[in-house]
Design goal:
By secondary structure, the protein is an alpha+beta fold. About 70% of the residues lie in helices and about 20% in strands. A two-stranded antiparallel sheet has the order 1-2. It is built from two helices and four strands, in the order H-E-E-E-E-H. A hairpin with a 2-residue loop joins strand 1 and strand 2. Helix 1 packs antiparallel against helix 2. It has a domain of about 100 residues: Helix Hairpins (Orthogonal Bundle). The longest helix is centred in the last third of the chain and has 50 residues.
């Protein structure tokens, strides 16, 4: 299939747009992965604290694969970020359940983003092949 000059320009512009979308979705996927890891870590910490007995020695994750030793108290409460820089006090089981819900939401968004990424990559690859083929055809016809 031969492309006219205008069609070739449009295809190149579309490729630029697809590449920009791919970069944006890649950034989104990375952020969602970090958020998922962070939320999963918080959920597991709440569950471990809920199962610990008063006086037990535990390690509390503080990020960057770092932990702080702590002794479990009788308090069964946690301060949980609930969004938009707001926090609320919840008991440990509620905090873990809240994080479970967040893990589900983030996982769904991550799956959707990865699917969108795959679809755009597929379309961009097909268009790239068409453009490269057109350049080959033009190069052969100019010889």
């Amino acid at each position: 299939m031969k492309m006219e000059d205008g069609e070739l320009r449009q295809a190149l512009e579309a490729l630029d747009t697809y590449n920009a979308q791919l970069e944006a979705i890649n950034r989104q996927v990375r952020l969602l992965q970090v958020s998922l890891e962070d939320t999963t870590r918080a959920r597991e910490s709440f569950k471990a604290l809920a199962n610990a007995k008063e006086g037990d020695d535990i390690l509390i994750p503080v990020g960057a694969s770092s932990f702080v030793p702590a002794k479990v108290t009788g308090s069964r409460k946690a301060i949980v970020g609930i969004g938009n820089r707001l926090s609320a006090e919840k008991d440990l089981d509620e905090a873990a359940a809240f994080m479970d819900a967040n893990v589900s939401e983030i996982s769904k968004a991550l799956r959707e983003s990865v699917n969108a990424l795959s679809e755009i990559e597929r379309i961009a690859t097909e268009l790239t092949m068409a453009v490269q083929n057109e350049y080959r055809v033009r190069q052969l016809s100019s010889q």
